[in-house]
UniProtKB/TrEMBL annotation:
Pfam families given in the database record: ABC_tran, DrrA1-3_C
Subcellular location(s) per record: Cell membrane
Protein's name in the database: ABC-2 type transport system ATP-binding protein
Membrane association type: Peripheral membrane protein
Protein's GO biological process: daunorubicin transport; doxorubicin transport; response to antibiotic
């Protein structure tokens, strides 16, 4: 069986910025690969290479068995792409946007119109199909953009952070659409900053940082790499947060995360209830009052923190060199 996507040792530099640094990944046919990482990790550059928009400086890549450098036109015939910013002509109606895409793919006038109406129904845009897209909400534009990527029924689909900027309801709706596509046999490479999204949608996940893969596996396998549990503590008085951190750090088996805004600490521990009891005894003995305390299993965010030494929230606040490349 030919892999839907296969990349080996991809390198891409922009001046002094090494956007891809030997990145390798594969998407088996009919599966979803989640590419997880913060802004600037190299996710979008990887998508640009795999969709023939950017030529790699080194390494090889193929999509649906076609080399992205040797036969870019052949690759483009097999893919659909939905980027971070919805590629929608706001002065055309939803129907006209999709009909135009169909004609660009040379489907013919009748087939283009039929496919446009079909996709408007599938993406719950039928009532808005004859309205100008300028009046669409962000979620509607995202759905229309994704519909446009599917006009030619491509076997391989690239979604580059498809739910960035959407409200929770629109994000959930988009997840349902993506699950439906996968159930229909589409092979998918999905880049995302949302850990829940990768956990929910992907068969396998690669964690990318500074242009290279630093971990890969299923969501459960990645969480198992971290192991243990997380002790979550919220102090009543923000002034006592530092003292609470001093007391609980000796119990930790990894870096303690300090969350100033919620007056909280996240402490990786082993031993479950015993460590919780130890923590409560230490804090009570020093008069540190709590608003909340509990134990939870590790998340993909914990995986990223353990692997990189920082959280995705820290990286979200950083400027993305990649986005401006």
């Amino acid at each position: 069986m030919v892999d839907a996507v296969l990349a080996e040792g991809l390198v891409k530099t922009y001046g002094k910025v090494r956007a891809l640094d030997g990145l390798s990944l594969r998407v088996p046919e009919g599966e979803v690969l989640g590419v997880l990482g913060p802004n600037g990790a190299g996710k979008t550059t990887a998508v640009k290479v795999l969709t023939t928009l950017v030529r790699p400086d080194a390494g090889t890549a193929s999509v649906a068995g076609v080399d992205v450098v040797a036969d870019p036109a052949g690759v483009r015939r097999s893919i659909g792409v939905s980027g971070q910013n919805a590629a929608v002509d706001e002065y055309l109606t939803g129907f006209e946007n999709l009909d135009m895409v169909g004609r660009l793919y040379h489907l013919g006038a009748r087939a283009s119109r039929e496919r446009a109406r079909e996709l408007l129904r599938e993406f719950d845009l039928e009532e808005a199909g004859d309205r100008v897209a300028k009046g669409y909400s962000g979620g509607m534009r995202r759905r229309l953009d994704l519909a446009g990527a599917l006009v030619a029924r491509p076997p391989v689909l690239f979604l580059d952070e498809p739910t960035t900027g959407l409200d929770p309801r629109s994000r959930t709706s988009m997840w349902e659409v993506i699950r439906g596509l996968v159930a229909g046999g589409t092979s998918l490479l999905l880049t995302t900053q949302y850990l829940e999204e990768a956990d929910l949608l992907a068969d396998n996940i690669v964690v990318v940082d500074h242009g290279r893969v630093i971990a890969e596996g299923t969501a459960d396998e990645l969480k198992a790499q971290v192991g243990g549990e997380r002790l979550q503590v919220t102090v009543a008085d923000p002034a006592q947060l530092g003292r609470a951190e001093e007391l609980l750090t000796p119990l930790a088996v990894g870096p303690v995360v300090r969350e100033e805004e919620r007056r909280g600490l996240l402490v990786p521990v082993t031993g479950g209830a015993a460590r919780l009891a130890d923590a409560l005894r230490l804090l009570d003995g020093e008069g540190v009052a709590l608003d909340d305390v509990g134990l939870r299993r590790p998340t993909l965010d914990d995986v990223f923190l353990t692997l990189t030494g920082r959280s995705t929230a820290e990286d979200d606040a950083a400027l993305s060199q990649e986005a401006s490349a």
